Amino acid sequence: MKKKYLGYLFLATVLLPGAFSLTLSSAAPASVQAATVTPRRAIIEYRYKIVRGYLYRRLYDASHDRWLGPWERA
After folding, report:
1. Could you tell me the pTM of the whole model?
2. How far is CA 12 from CA 2, 18, 69, in A?
3. Per the domain annotation, does 36 fall within a domain?
4. Number of independent structural domains in the chain
5. In terms of DSSP bridges, do strands 54-61 and 66-67 run parallel, antiparallel, or are they unpaired?
6. Do 31 and 14 form a contact (C-beta atoms < 8 A)?
7. One digit per residue, pLDDT tens: the chain, 74 residues?
8. Which domain holds residue 13?
9. How far apart are CA 6 and CA 45, in angstroms?
10. CA separation for the pair 31, 21 (Å, rounded)
């Protein structure tokens, strides 16, 4: 009786992990589609120019192509 019990226990430890790995791998999608990523945060940077020897800067939103503030002396 003890040998039979140990035999079943051995077979269960050998065969059951393989069965679980098959079910997990079959649930995975066959192909992954490429998705486009859109930025969630605006890309804001300073733009600079020199007028009559003075350096000016202005905030620019590069993700929406618009100015965010007036020119100010840097």
Report:
1. 0.46
2. 15, 10, 71
3. no
4. 1
5. antiparallel
6. no
7. 778 878 878 877 877 776 666 555 555 566 667 788 776 788 999 999 999 999 999 999 998 999 999 999 99
8. 2-29+41-73
9. 70
10. 19
